[in-house]
Amino acid sequence: MRSTSEEPVPLHEEFIYCCGAATHVLKCGPWKDLSKDESKNLPRLLFMIIPGNPGLAGYYRTFIQALYCGLNQQYPVWVVSHAGHCKPPSGMEMIEDTDIKELEDVFGLNGQVEHKLNFLKKNVSKDIKLVLIAHSIGCYITLEMMKRASELQVLRSVLLFPTIERMAQSPQGKLMTPLLCKLRYVLYMPVYLLSFLPEGVKASLVRFALRGMKTCDESSITTSVNLFSVDCIANILYMASQEMMKVVERDSTTIKQNLKKLIFYYGTGDSWCPQHYYDEIKMDFPDGDIRLCEKGLRHAFVLDASKEMAAMITDWLRDDLTKL
After folding, report:
1. Which of the residues 24, 115, 135, 299 is marked catalytic?
2. Is 299 a catalytic residue?
3. At 322, is the pLDDT very low, low, confident or very high (cuts 50, 70, 90)?
C-alpha cells in the first residue's frame, strides 16, 4: 500500500473562516474541493485529521504527507486546525468581522466539536466516506462528532493517545490543571513580549526548548513559532482549561455503539492517559480494537515520529480499504 516515492508531496494550504473563527487547513492530494456542487470526480474516501491541543495544522504536515504516500496517493488527506489555533495571514483577523454569530464560544471544547461538524457540512459531500484520525483531545472531539452526527459515513476512527476521560486526574493533568484554570492569564504577558522578537530568534528558542530530542521534525519547529502569537496561545490555553473541567467520564455508550469502527492506540509512558486507562477500557471492551504502543512513541508523536505512525495506520487499515 506504500508509495516508493521519497519526493515531498505538495500541499494545498488555506486560511478560512469556519463558524466565524480563523481556521488553517492543509490538504494533501489534487482534490482541493470536495463539496457536492463544485467537484465532479469526487473520491470515495477522505482521511481527515482531528488534531490535539495545540491544534495547529502545521504540526501534522509531515504526518499527512507520509499517510498520503502510504495510501499510494489514492485518497485525499486533510488536517483542519482547531478554531483559532493558528496565526492568520496579514489582513485576516482571528474572528470574522460580521454581525452574524454562527456559534457561541467557538474556542471552547464544545465549540471545537461543532466547528469540525460545520467544516464537514460546508466542505465535504455527504456521499464521501470518512476515516477520522484523531490525536489526544481530538479523540474526545471525534467521539462527540460521531455521537452528535450519526449520519456521517465514518468508515473508521483511529484514536491516537486518546484523552477521553479523567484528564485532570492524570499525572500531567494534576500538574497542569491549576496553571490552566487559575493562572493562565499570567502567561499572556511574557508571550506578548516575546512576540516582538525576530522570527529567527523565535525559531532558535523553539529549537532550544526541543533540544532533548534526537530528531525533531522541522515543520514542528516552524509551526511552534506561531505559539508566540498572544491570540493563538490564549485560544489554546482556554480550550485546555475546559478540557481539564469537562473531560471526566469516558463516553462508554458512544464507544459501544461504534465499537467496530474504532481503533484505540495508547502509550506506555503517557502522562495524559496512563496505562491503567488502557487496562480499564480493554477490560470493559474486550472485543474492541484497543492497542498498546510497543515502540515507545511519545504522546506528541508529531514532533519526531510522524512517518512511523503513518506507516502503522496504513497497515491497520489495509483490509478496510481493500473492501471499498
Report:
1. 299
2. yes
3. confident
pLDDT at residue 4, rounded to an integer: 41
Residue 40 has pLDDT above 50, yes or no: yes
Q: Is the pTM higher than 0.85?
A: yes
| Dihedral over Cα of 127, 134, 295, 297: its sign | positive
Enter the DSSP assignment of 80. Answer: E
Alpha carbon 146 to chain centroid distance? 16
Selecting among 217, 231, 270, 304, the annotated active-site residue is 270
Beta strands in 143-249 (DSSP E): 154-160
**Known active-site residue 217:** no
Give the three cell numbers for residue 1.
500500500
Answer yes or no: 136 catalytic.
Answer: yes
pLDDT at 96 exceeding the cut of 70: yes
211 pLDDT band, cuts 50/70/90, is confident
Give the pLDDT confidence score for residue 247 in this predicted structure.
97
The pLDDT value recorded for residue 3 is: 45
Q: Is 90 left (phi over 0), alpha (psi -120 to 50) or beta?
A: beta
Q: Tell me which of 82, 85, 136, 241 is the catalytic residue.
A: 136
Asked if residues 5 and 69 have their Cβ atoms less than 8 Å apart, the reply is: yes
In terms of phi and psi (left: phi > 0; alpha: psi -120 to 50; beta: otherwise), the region of 23 is beta
What span, in angstroms and rounded, lies between the C-alpha atoms of 116 and 113?
5
In the block, residue with C-alpha cell 469502527: 261
d(CA 113, CA 18): 12
